[in-house]
Amino acid sequence: MNKRKSKLARETSETQISLELNIDGRGRYEIDTGNGMLDHLLAQLSRHGLMDLTIAAKGDIHVGWHHLVEDLGIVLGRAFKEAVGEARGITRMAHSYVPLDEALALVVVDFGGRGYSVIEGEIGDSDLGGLSGDTIRHFLESMAREGSFNLHVRVLSGINNHHIAEATFKALARALRAAITPDDRLSGDIPSTKGTIG
User: Fold this and answer.
1) Domain contains 63
2) Which of 83, 166, 167, 188 is the right S-S partner for 103, CB 3.0 to 4.6 Å?
């Protein structure tokens, strides 16, 4: 299979984002969003999803993190959509449970061409490096919508917001990795009875 990569940029009056993604990578990353917690969560996607990820993002953070985080979710989702392409030969659907101390997250994904998300479970605002739990939720929604994949997140347990967020992103990484991994038995076929993903 050819290397599945994407290189995108988005510039608005609110944010400037450049991103490179290789979904057949080795988990190498270089991430600078201006927020250490956001960098940390995105690093989980790269390392545990075995995707190479380079991100440079800046924006109007004087009004808060919403614009930057939302736009980053948009760009990353589009990068996944471009890198996966027609989805030929991929496993398509996958899930992952990941614990982190008292926290436990379940993430289920389907690269079936339908951008939709359901995120259940509380992520509070403390211990998130200035991010809010709702901003993290919105990032996941934006990423799934723009990436044209179905995303379900369940926070099954947890007290510490850092643990909950990190377990969620690790579970997302593992689910994405499994879903976009080629299945040799498909021989490059599109994994849908429709004959197309989109």
Assistant:
1) yes
2) 167
**Bridge pairing between strands 150-157 and 116-120:** parallel
The pLDDT of residue 2: 61
Check pLDDT > 90 for residue 69. Answer: yes
CATH number, position 105: 3.30.230.40
Long-range CB pairs of 192-196 (<8 Å, 24+ gap) are 192/87, 192/92, 192/112, 192/113, 196/86, 196/113
* Domain contains 9: yes
* Residue 57 dihedral angles phi and psi, to the nearest 5°: -140, 135
Residue 40 has pLDDT above 60, yes or no: yes
User: What's the pTM?
Assistant: 0.96
Which residues, other chains included, contact 3 with Cβ-Cβ below 8 Å and sequence gap of 6+? Answer: 22, 24
